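Below is a filled-in request sheet from our internal design queue. Each sheet records the structural input a requester submitted and the sequence that came back. We keep these sheets so that new team members can see what a complete request looks like end to end.

REQUESTER: design group, bay 2
PRIORITY: normal
MODE: inverse folding
CHAIN LENGTH: 1266
BACKBONE (tokenized):
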């Protein structure tokens, strides 16, 4: 081999064979194997090849060759390299084989484990499912059985007591007829009962009773006469004995002889002669007792409590159960009266039904009260004795066994029965149910089962007593019932499911064995292929080859998709703009990851901005701001989708959209103009709809819209939160069109106008006179667009238009007042529901301490009365009377006694939004607010709209008191944190909140538009009425309070205040709050400042409790909250401040014009506002901020106050001049309006005469300056 051959042969093996030659020359037999890409092994040198002969210039004596030292060293080095790579390749193969084998084994093990787990899980699932089915069947059977037991007992009580009621009506009627036809001695207690034996047998049959008797009421004075009468009229006994002997249904013992009861007696013999009575002796009884006298035994002696309860309250009482533990006395008395199917040693009880002498005068008896009226006269009782087992028989069907009924009373008597089908078995005394089933308990009181007071039941007699030893029943299942629903089905189904999965697993294992054999073959082939590739390429080259192949595929795929298509895919939501930021290395590979961007030459871009939004949002809570934006943008999105417009983004209150991409369309300008019109109309509808919810000025929000057409660059900026973006001069110009536009107008550039003209929409366009000056553009000619409006002249004259505009303004003012009324009603209604919810929570908490059942009923009734007050029901709260000679100012309190915060009540309070207020209360509330609005005068500042603005500020500050955030607490000092917490606890009471909002609503009622000092100068009647102090404020309180106290608002007052104490507190809060709005009285201001310092000074005031100190702080905070809200416009956005500042200026200027003010406000307004900020507004805002009660709102108020003061100092003079200019213009417009009105009326007269008249007026009208 020469050196070139060696250098170009990457891998080779040399085998040397040296042998003697006949000419003593050496011959080299070499075989070389070369491997290279694309070549097969070749034999380079052969012993028979002449070219393989070694030159003869080397002989055997050549030491350098013959020893082979030099060559051997070379061979050794090549051999080492070869074996190193070979070993590495072999190790790689082994590692791959081991890795793959391990992976297969792991997967196989996981599959086996999963199969076992699934088999066990499915088996358990099947077992659980079938068992659950049996459990459900058991539960349903128990539910059905328990319901039948409860219903059957209720029906039995209806039937039994109904039969007794009919019997009582009959005997009362007989007694009444006998007394009318015979003599007075036949009335009670001497009333006879005709055919008693038959009536008694029928009553026993209907009621399932064992014994019943009639026990007339006999006084001590009537005793002797009644005893003689009873003996003389005991012929009914023989009749009853004959009926019993001949009655086949009677299963008791018959009496052959009897002895009369000559005197009223008890268990120990005749009652003493001097007994005070009354007595309730037995007279009529069925069946007859075979042991004792037929009549005369005094029931009252042993059952006094039961009889007194029945006759004093007009209820049916249930006596104590006998024989819970068998009593020989009771057994001896009852065993002769019952048949063999009843056990005399089982529990029994008696019902005591009062006999009302007037029971035949009415169908429905509504009694059960502590005091009875004259419609009831109780002359005796009927006692009906039953066995408890009779109530529980024949309820369930055959096979329904194992229902346990535990019966007891609140008199500590408890016993247990087991109901098996149609029979009932007495188990024993006490609760003998299985505790394992107590969680399935069904419980009810017996007086609840038959629902006596319900008109859908047939029973119309006296109700069961709810208070005297009420009986209850508890129903439980038992093991016998459960055993009837248990089977081997769960196990059987489980074994079947497991067998199926085992069979499936065996099939899988068989398949795995077959696949394993195939995989071994594939693996052998793969090893051979890997060995070949490893021999062909080094590891680094192989890796690069594989990676280059993947990159090549990606490049081909990327080239198949152009940029515009990829951008369209992204905009439609199915592209690759997934928001994942490309790495630095990926960004460098621009060929594989190209930016998603493209130029669109034909588009129209829209910018829309909500006018007045910044000032509006400064008055609202964040949730209200987002409610408006979500409603508006959601509506805009719907319109965009319908119009085929693409929404780009929203930035604050700005909405950006584009037409003409991703799919080009030639009518993009027309589409965008229609879209602009639609969102403008939708803006009006949405703000009007949300006006009631979001408060005043919401409906006054407008929208500015700007459009421009031209090319844009559109693309996706990938990274965190990838977004679609527009770039180019077209976008910037569209933004300028919006910023220089007018409210409710659609302003477009000349380019967009040209597009519209191409499509013959030039009648949509109105050229804007003078154009606009756009930032970075200079003077630009623009147009206003009104789609679908055809050009044409109006037939109305300018005078008609001016009059129509005036009428429209009046209608708009009325409409605005109506909206404000609705909003104020919504706020007050919301707080009123909170009052009701809080009141219910107090009632519920109180009820839980005094007996769950009865008080829950009472509380529920009270809640219904509070929430749904009847219109004809007079208020339970007395109207507070103001003492003679006491004015409102005298009622101001330094400390108002506020209710303590109760965490338990707060936790138990239900959601106020679920409270339903009575329609009468809502109607009265709306009527009251409307009448308050009418009581406000047509002032510019002290008007109903300003009162609503104050109300909004109060609501916002109250929300901050109600829910201080963690950030507020962290920003407050430690003592301020405690202060904020205590004031929050006090002020979270909804009545306090209602009082504050109410005070804000009424605080300027009947305000005359001039300050109190002017009223004093004018010697107004209010001066004498209110001692020349806070006259306007006191007058507002008296007028508004007097209106609330009218009879028309009785239901509203009852809903606000349930007690006189609440009404007093409500009055005190309103008085303190309204009086706090008088900021000009120096004495009141000094007193308030002193109370503030006292309330918020370090430490507690000596001699006062912590509660008094807390109430003091809450009282003064409420007053300052009303103060701040009354001038809240000075601590709000600059535009809001300017609006109300101008109104106050106009009001005071008007007073000066009509002679009700000494000075022209224009002369002092600028400096006056600065002094007002320095000496009142900013100190007040600092107070709110320092007390730490209002959280971020106080920071916001202070910040706006400082900014407005700074802005006023800079621009105030300009603002005053502008306000004066507007006033002069308005006066000129008013004169023109009067002239227009007169001109219109003149045109209805003769032509020439009217013209002359008009010309005369025009000529005689002085100019405005004069």
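RETURNED SEQUENCE:
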């Amino acid at each position: 081999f020469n050196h070139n051959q060696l250098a170009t042969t990457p891998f080779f093996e040399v085998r040397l064979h040296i042998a003697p030659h006949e000419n003593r020359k050496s011959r080299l037999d070499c075989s070389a194997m070369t491997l290279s890409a694309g070549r097969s092994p070749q034999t380079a040198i052969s012993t028979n090849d002449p070219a393989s002969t070694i030159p003869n210039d080397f002989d055997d004596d050549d030491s350098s060759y013959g020893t082979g030292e030099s060559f051997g060293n070379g061979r050794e080095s090549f051999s080492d390299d070869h074996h190193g790579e070979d070993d590495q390749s072999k190790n790689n193969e082994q590692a791959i084989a081991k890795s793959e084998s391990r992976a297969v084994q792991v997967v196989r093990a996981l599959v086996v484990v999963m199969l076992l787990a699934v088999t066990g899980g499915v088996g358990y699932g099947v077992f659980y499912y079938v068992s659950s089915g049996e459990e459900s069947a058991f539960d349903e059977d128990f539910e059905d059985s328990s319901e039948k037991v409860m219903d059957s007992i209720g029906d039995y009580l209806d039937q039994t007591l109904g039969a007794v009621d009919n019997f009582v009506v009959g005997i009362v009627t007989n007694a009444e007829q006998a007394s009318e036809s015979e003599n007075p001695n036949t009335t009670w207690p001497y009333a006879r009962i005709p055919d008693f034996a038959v009536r008694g047998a029928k009553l026993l049959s209907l009621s399932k009773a064992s014994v019943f008797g009639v026990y007339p009421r006999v006084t001590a004075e009537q005793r002797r006469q009644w005893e003689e009468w009873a003996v003389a009229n005991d012929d009914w006994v023989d009749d009853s004995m004959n009926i019993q002997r001949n009655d086949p249904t009677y299963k008791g013992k018959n009496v052959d002889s009897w002895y009369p009861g000559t005197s009223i007696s008890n268990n120990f013999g005749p009652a003493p002669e001097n007994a005070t009575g009354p007595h309730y002796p037995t007279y009529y009884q069925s069946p007859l007792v075979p042991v004792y006298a037929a009549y005369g035994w005094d029931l009252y002696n042993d059952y006094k409590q039961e009889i007194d309860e029945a006759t004093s309250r007009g209820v049916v009482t249930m006596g104590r159960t006998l024989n819970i533990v068998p009593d020989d006395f009771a057994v001896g008395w009852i065993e002769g009266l019952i048949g063999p199917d009843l056990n005399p040693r089982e529990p029994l009880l008696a019902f005591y039904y009062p006999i009302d002498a007037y029971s035949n005068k009415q169908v429905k008896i509504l009694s059960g009260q502590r005091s009875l009226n004259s419609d009831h006269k109780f002359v005796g009782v009927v006692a009906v004795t039953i066995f408890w087992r009779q109530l529980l028989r024949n309820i369930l069907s055959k096979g329904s066994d194992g229902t346990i009924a535990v019966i007891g009373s609140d008199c500590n008597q408890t016993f247990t029965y087991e109901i098996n089908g149609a029979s009932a078995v007495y188990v024993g005394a006490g609760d003998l149910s299985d505790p394992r089933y107590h969680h399935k308990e069904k419980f009810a009181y017996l007086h609840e089962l038959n629902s006596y007071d319900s008109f859908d039941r047939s029973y119309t007699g006296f109700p069961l007593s709810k208070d005297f030893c009420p009986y209850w029943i508890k129903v439980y299942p038992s093991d016998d019932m459960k055993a009837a629903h248990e089977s081997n089905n769960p196990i059987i189904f489980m074994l079947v499911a497991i067998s199926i999965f085992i069979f499936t697993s065996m099939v899988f294992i068989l398949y795995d064995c077959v696949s394993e054999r195939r995989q071994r073959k594939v693996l052998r082939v793969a090893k051979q292929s890997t060995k070949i590739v490893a021999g062909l390429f080094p590891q680094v080259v192989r890796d690069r080859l594989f990676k280059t192949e993947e990159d090549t595929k990606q490049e081909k795929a990327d080239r198949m998709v152009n940029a515009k298509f990829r951008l369209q895919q992204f905009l439609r939501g199915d592209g690759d703009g997934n928001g994942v930021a490309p790495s630095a290395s990926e960004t460098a590979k621009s060929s594989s990851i190209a930016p998603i961007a493209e130029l669109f030459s034909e588009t129209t871009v829209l910018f829309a901005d909500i006018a007045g939004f910044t000032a509006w949002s400064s008055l609202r809570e964040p949730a209200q701001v987002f409610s408006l934006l979500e409603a508006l943008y959601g509506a805009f999105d719907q319109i965009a989708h319908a119009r085929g417009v693409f929404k780009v983004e929203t930035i604050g209150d700005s909405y950006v959209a584009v037409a003409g991409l991703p799919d080009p369309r030639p009518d993009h300008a027309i589409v965008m103009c229609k879209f602009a019109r639609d969102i403008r109309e939708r803006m009006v509808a949405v703000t009007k709809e949300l006006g009631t919810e979001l408060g005043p000025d919401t409906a006054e929000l407008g929208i500015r819209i700007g459009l421009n057409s031209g090319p844009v660059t559109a693309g996706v900026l990938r990274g965190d939160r990838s977004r679609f973006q527009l770039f180019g001069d077209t976008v910037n110009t569209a933004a300028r069109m919006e910023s220089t536009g007018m409210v409710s107008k659609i302003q477009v550039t000349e380019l967009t106008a040209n597009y519209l003209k191409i499509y013959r929409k030039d009648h949509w366009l109105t050229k804007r006179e003078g154009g606009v000056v756009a930032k970075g553009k200079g003077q630009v000619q623009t147009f206003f667009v009104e789609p679908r409006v055809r050009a044409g002249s109006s037939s109305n004259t300018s005078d008609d238009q001016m009059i129509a505009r005036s009428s429209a303004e009046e209608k708009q003012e009325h409409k605005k007042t109506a909206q404000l009324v609705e909003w104020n009603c919504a706020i007050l209604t919301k707080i009123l529901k909170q009052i009701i919810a809080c009141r219910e929570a107090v009632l519920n908490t109180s009820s839980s301490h005094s007996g769950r059942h009865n008080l829950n009923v009472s509380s529920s009734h009270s809640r219904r009365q509070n929430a749904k007050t009847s219109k004809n029901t007079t208020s339970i709260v007395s109207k507070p009377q103001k003492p003679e000679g006491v004015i409102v100012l005298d009622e101001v309190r330094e400390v108002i006694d506020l209710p303590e915060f109760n965490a338990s009540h707060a936790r138990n309070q239900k959601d106020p939004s679920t409270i339903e207020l009575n329609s009468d209360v809502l109607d009265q509330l709306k009527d009251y607010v409307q009448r308050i609005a009418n009581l406000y005068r047509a002032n510019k500042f002290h008007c109903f709209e300003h009162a609503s603005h104050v109300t909004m500020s109060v609501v916002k500050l109250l929300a901050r008191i109600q829910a201080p955030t963690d950030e507020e607490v962290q920003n407050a000092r430690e003592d301020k944190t405690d202060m904020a917490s205590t004031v929050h606890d006090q002020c979270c009471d909804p009545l306090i909140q209602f009082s504050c909002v109410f005070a804000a609503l009424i605080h300027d009622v009947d305000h005359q538009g001039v300050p109190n000092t002017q009223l004093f100068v004018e010697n107004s009647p209010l001066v004498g009425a209110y001692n020349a102090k806070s006259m306007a404020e006191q007058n507002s309180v008296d007028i508004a309070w007097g209106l609330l106290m009218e009879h028309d608002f009785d239901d509203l007052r009852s809903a606000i205040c349930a007690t006189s104490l609440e009404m007093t507190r409500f009055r005190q809060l309103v008085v303190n709050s309204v009086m706090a709005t008088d900021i000009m009285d120096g004495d009141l201001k000094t007193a308030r400042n002193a109370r503030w310092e006292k309330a918020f000074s370090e430490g507690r005031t000596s001699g006062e409790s912590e509660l008094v100190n807390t109430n003091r702080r809450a009282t003064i905070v409420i007053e300052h909250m009303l103060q701040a809200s009354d001038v809240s416009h000075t601590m709000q956005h600059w535009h809001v401040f300017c609006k109300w500042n101008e109104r106050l200026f106009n009001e005071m200027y008007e007073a000066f014009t009509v002679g009700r003010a000494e000075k022209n406000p224009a002369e002092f307004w600028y400096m006056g506002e600065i002094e007002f900020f320095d000496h009142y507004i900013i100190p007040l805002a600092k107070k709110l901020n320092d007390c730490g009660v209002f959280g971020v709102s106080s920071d916001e108020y202070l910040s706006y106050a400082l900014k407005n003061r700074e802005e006023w100092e800079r621009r105030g003079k300009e603002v005053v001049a502008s306000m004066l200019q507007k006033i002069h213009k308005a006066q000129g417009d008013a004169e023109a309006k009067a002239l227009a009105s007169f001109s219109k009326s003149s045109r209805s007269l003769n032509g020439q005469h009217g013209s002359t008249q008009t010309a005369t007026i025009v000529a005689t009208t002085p100019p405005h300056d004069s």
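SHEET NOTES:
- The mean pLDDT is 76.
- The radius of gyration is 52 Å.
FILED BY: M.R.
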